[in-house]
Each structure stands twice: as structure tokens, then as C-alpha cells.
From TrEMBL:
InterPro entries: 4-PPantetheinyl_Trfase_dom, 4-PPantetheinyl_Trfase_dom_sf. It comes from the Bacteria. The lineage of its organism: Bacteria, Bacillati, Bacillota, Negativicutes, Selenomonadales. GO terms for molecular function: holo-[acyl-carrier-protein] synthase activity; magnesium ion binding. Transmembrane segments: none annotated. Residues 138-220 form the 4'-phosphopantetheinyl transferase domain. It holds the Pfam family ACPS. This is Phosphopantetheinyl transferase. Keywords: Transferase. SUPFAM superfamilies: 4'-phosphopantetheinyl transferase.
Length: 260
């Protein structure tokens, strides 16, 4: 991998952030993807992030009344802009607009990155975003390991997925959230969100690799998903099965632990 793509961590605007670059080969072409990870360390300071909002984003922001919605909006937008900026070189965040499509999927409007798309996810005080060329398809998701979500996830498992639990070397609680993030990331690739029965997104296999997991699907055999854990969080990224990903997982996880 090109050494100029080595991950970068920084502290700014009340947040710890980490950006990782990696390459994806597909159909004899190579594309760069930028992953941004963000964690709030000072919410009051982070509200200054609104100075980086596009004018249309700022108009929407001014209608928000509740702290949780304000936090999630700023988390998602800031992480997405960090990723898009790293990919396109556009350093003026006001010139990067993240709009919502008809299914609330994020869409990028950026003069210097007209072919750029983004996938984003946030959970409590953390977020992740992936920026990539529109020739690719990627979906990301993040969840915090919390007992409050276990029962709801377990109720949605198919019988086949329940049987997979014995083959995965992690706690049952982590397995449940792994299943959830994998399905969430696939739903973002499909641009349906969780508006379809989760059984349609059934996971067929989960293979254990060195520090991460690779999954495929019963009904969507054209995709793979990578899942890894860092700190209190589980991350999943779904991508085309025929794509070759050059991602240094050890370096990525090391950068995330420093961020936490």
C-alpha cells in the first residue's frame, strides 16, 4: 500500500478522530477508500462543528431541539465530511454537503468530488464514515456492545443464524451485535435500510480471520462483509464479493485503540 495512505489520528473540535485509507481493486481498476472514525470527548466544544456545515445543513440544524438529535446529526455530518475531505482534498467543509436521498441514504454534493459517495453510521458518542468513488458500493455500521440491545437482536435471528453462533469464537453478546451490524451495513448497500424483513438479509457463513470476521449472505451472494471489534464497539463493512480489498486491519485497530 502507498505509504502516503497511512492512517492519521487527530484531536480537534471536541472530538478524537482517526482516518484510514485503503485501496479496492474491482474490474481491473483500483480505487481509494477513506474511513473516518470519530468519538466525542467534549460535546459543548463539538457544537462549534456547526461552523463547518453547508448553508442548507445549517438551516436544518437550526430546527433541531433535542440534544440526542443534535448530537447524532453533528456526529454523522462531521465524520462524513472528514472522510470526503480526505478522499477529495476539499478542505472547506462548507463546500461539502451531505444530503438525504429518498430512503434517507446519504448523498454527497461536492464540487471537487462529483463522483464521491459516502456511507455513515453513528452510535451514542461515536461515528464511522466511508467515502468512496461512485463506481464502488460500500456500507458501514457501528454498534456499541450494550446489553440493552441483546434481546431485540436475538428475536430477529433466523434458525440458521442461531446455529452459526457455535462456530464463531466470541461471546454470544458480541455475536448478536455482529449479526446486527452486518445486516445494517448490507441494508445500506441495498439502500433499503431496515425497511425489509431482516430474514431476507440472512447471513450464510461467518469465517474467523486474524483479528476480524468475513461473512457472506444467503440471498445476496454477490456481497461480503468484514466485521471487527475495537474497544466497546463493533464495526461492519459490506462490499462487492468480487472486489479485492487491501486493508491493513492490524494498523486500523491500533489506530482506533489510540483514538479511544
Amino acid at each position: 500500500m502507498n505509504t502516503k495512505w497511512i492512517g492519521k489520528a487527530d484531536i480537534s473540535d471536541g472530538c478524537n478522530t482517526y482516518t484510514e485509507w485503503f485501496s479496492v481493486k474491482f474490474a481491473q481498476r483500483e480505487y481509494k477508500v477513506c474511513l473516518n472514525f470519530l468519538k466525542i470527548i467534549d460535546f459543548d466544544q463539538m457544537t462549534s462543528v456547526r461552523q463547518f456545515l453547508h448553508e442548507e445543513e445549517n438551516r436544518y440544524f437550526e430546527t433541531l431541539q433535542y440534544k440526542l438529535r443534535i448530537k447524532s446529526f453533528l456526529l454523522g455530518r462531521y465524520s462524513a465530511k472528514k472522510a470526503v475531505s480526505a478522499l477529495t482534498g476539499q478542505t472547506n467543509f462548507k463546500k461539502i454537503q451531505i444530503k438525504n436521498g429518498v430512503f434517507n441514504q446519504p448523498l454527497v454534493v461536492c464540487e471537487t468530488g462529483g463522483n464521491t459517495q459516502v456511507s455513515l453510521s453513528h452510535c451514542e458518542d461515536s461515528a464511522v464514515a466511508a467515502a468512496f468513488h461512485e463506481m464502488l458500493i460500500l456500507g458501514v455500521d457501528i454498534e456499541k456492545i450494550s446489553r440493552n440491545t441483546f434481546s431485540g437482536v436475538e428475536a430477529e435471528l433466523t434458525q440458521h443464524e442461531k446455529e452459526l453462533a457455535d462456530s464463531v469464537n466470541c461471546s454470544y453478546e458480541s455475536f448478536l451485535l455482529m449479526i446486527w451490524t452486518i445486516k445494517e451495513s448490507l441494508s445500506k448497500v441495498l439502500r433499503t435500510g431496515l425497511t425489509i424483513p431482516l430474514s431476507i438479509l440472512e447471513i450464510k457463513n461467518i469465517e474467523v480471520h486474524n483479528g476480524y470476521f468475513v461473512s457472506d449472505f444467503t440471498n445476496f451472494f454477490q456481497y461480503y462483509s468484514i466485521t471487527f471489534m475495537a474497544g466497546e464497539y463493533i464495526y461492519s463493512m459490506t462490499y462487492p464479493k468480487k472486489a479485492e480489498i487491501n486493508l491493513d486491519m492490524n494498523r486500523l485497530k491500533s489506530g482506533l485503540y489510540k483514538m479511544f
